[in-house]
Amino acid sequence: MANHIIPTQSKPIVPQEGWHVQHLFFSLNHTNWASMEEDQQESARKHLEGTIARIRKHPDTQLLAFSMVGPKSDLGFMILTPDLQDADRFAKDLQRALGPDVLVPAYSYLSMTELSEYTTKEEEFKKELVEKEGLVEGSEPFTARLAEWNARMAKYNQDRLYPNMPDWQVMCFYNMSKRRNVEQNWYASSFEARRQLMSGHAKTGRAWHGKIRQLITGSTGLDEAEWGVTLFAHDTHHIKGIVYEMRFDEVSAVYAEFGDFYIGIQLPLKELLDRLLA
Ligand code: 76R
Question: Considering the entire predicted model, what is its pTM?
Answer without folding.
Answer: 0.95
